Amino acid sequence: MVVQEVVRTVGGARTGLPRLAARIRALIAEEFGVMTGALLLVRPGTVRGAGTAKVRRALLRERYPRGEVHALHAEFGPEIGEPCRGGAA
Q1: How many degrees, rounded to 5, is the angle at CA 49 between CA 76 and CA 55?
Q2: Which of 1, 33, 63, 74 is deepest in the core (most CB within 10 A)?
């Protein structure tokens, strides 16, 4: 499951982002009965792409592990772990 949340911060303040992320996770669990594995909060315009939301989500899944998407706040569930970046080890 991919959830895209676009965030506008005031003066670059990010102190409320962990609380916002927790609220988003709780609402998804309540509404859909699923737990989010990874949650990224990004600035408006970060996830661009032609076509449908499905296409944009696929682009995000490809671009983030390559370091092409900067998240203001990122959380990864224990079953996911933060993606490796920068090529093969």
Answers
A1: 65
A2: 74
Confidence band, pLDDT 50/70/90 cuts, at residue 30: very high
Phi-psi region of 77 (alpha: psi -120 to 50; beta: other; left: phi over 0): beta
Contact 40, 64 (CB under 8 A): yes
pTM: 0.67
Is the model's pLDDT at 54 over the cut of 90? no
Location of structure tokens 């609220």: 23
* Nearest-angstrom CA–CA distance, 56 and 69: 12
